[in-house]
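Continuing the series of single-chain predictions for the mutant panel. This is the parent chain; the variants come on the following pages.
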Amino acid sequence: MAPIGPTPSNVASQENSKDNTSSAPPLSRVISPIVSLILRILTLVCLFVSLILLTTASHESITFTFFRAYRYLCATIVIGLAYSLLQTAFTIFHVSTGNRIGVDGLDYIDFYGDKVVSYVLATGAAASFGMTQELKNLDSGAGTTKFIMTTDAATSLCLLAFLFTAISSIFSSFALPKRA
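Parent structure:
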């Protein structure tokens, strides 16, 4: 009569057969440089279009320079553009050659740079959304609707650039050395 239930010898043979039949590779936490490049390019496009919209927004003699929040948005966009342009160049080099520029310390610069720039972009977008809401509340048919909508579009694109940079920050965290 065969024993009912698992016996120590049956369990050991089942564990060995599971180990030998497992052909799936372990999950990798390394993100393809092409995905990073796409995120960097999307960030650049959003920031560039946002800058164009912001600087061309005007109503009669009113421009974005009349409002401190929009000047701050312009500064954050320029900072984001400069950083994203530099990182895009590094990522293009990485994709084309397969080698990263510099030493492992640049992984930390990528990670913390992405964090700082993403938060700077978020604060610029938040300040501008607040300013846009105040202008909407004050607009009583003064004809500034086009100006408000244009600055709102520029702010929305800056917020989208923040999201792309935040995702890039998450991906750059995967490249950091693991501590034991």
